[in-house]
Specification:
The complex is a heterodimer. Chain A is an all-beta fold. Chain A contains no helices and 12 strands. The radius of gyration of chain B is 13 Å and the shape is globular. The chains are: A mainly beta, B mainly beta. The interface between A and B is medium-sized, with 29 and 33 residues.
């Protein structure tokens, strides 16, 4: 069975600190996709990044960066120089490759609080 | 602007009552999904639909029902058989046949028991 684990339930840091959110996954599929979503207090989930199982290249987008390591089944997310607006719940998710529809398996989420 | 609209934002259910949550999308997506979110937990899949007039159970379908009569609409009914309905419900959509594409989410409906 597919599973996503986000061991950090809550993280609290002071603004401008760097913070890393951990994500570990389990799957038997050789082809799969990993996602990170952000859930601000308003409730909707906002897509941040997608990574497929064949692409282990790390990615940087502004203050955000993602480190994908198949050897450890991890897909960690780092925010550099954090800001108060980064405060939200962050979810890591794994896609089951069902043709025609996408069944996402979500982690429990990490609540990130950035204090001024 | 294209997107997903969920209504109402807040909903209250009495004992023994069925309630229906609305989800409408104008993204021209074929696949639609309903998730339930409980405090401190991730999202769990209730139902999903790949095309009109077809839908499949997710991991926690008991006590819920859906319909997909139009491509744009995927309403969720929380029946009286669902004994613990208090939760945050999120609707999502994605292009059909493209399981690598991110899902787009609505703003959610918060359901509580009176």
């Amino acid at each position: 069975a597919q599973k996503v684990t986000q061991a950090q339930t809550e993280i609290s840091v002071v603004e401008k600190e760097d913070v890393t959110l951990d994500c570990v996954y389990e799957t038997r599929d050789t082809t799969y996709y990993l996602f990170w979503y952000k859930q601000p207090p308003s409730g909707e989930l906002v897509f941040l990044i997608r990574r497929n199982s064949f692409d282990e290249q790390n990615e940087i987008s502004g203050r955000y960066s993602w480190n994908f390591q198949k050897s450890t089944s991890s897909f960690n997310f780092t925010i550099t120089a954090s800001q108060v607006v980064d405060s939200a719940v962050y979810f890591c998710a794994l896609s089951e490759g069902v043709q025609g529809a996408q069944k996402l398996v979500f982690g429990q989420g990490t609540r990130l609080t950035i204090n001024p | 602007d294209g997107g997903i609209t969920q209504s109402p934002k807040y909903l209250f259910r009495k004992e023994g009552q069925n309630v229906t949550l609305s989800c409408e999308q104008n993204l021209n997506h074929d696949a639609m999904y309903w998730y339930r979110q409980d405090p401190g937990q991730g999202l769990r899949l209730i139902y999903y639909s790949q095309i009109v007039n077809d839908f499949q159970k997710g991991d926690i379908a008991e006590g819920y029902s859906v319909s997909r009569e139009k491509k744009e609409s995927f309403p969720l009914t929380v029946t009286s058989a669902q004994k613990n309905p208090t939760a945050f419900y999120l609707c999502a959509s994605s292009p059909e046949g493209l399981y690598n594409q991110p899902q787009h989410f609505g703003d959610g409906t918060r359901l509580s028991i009176l």
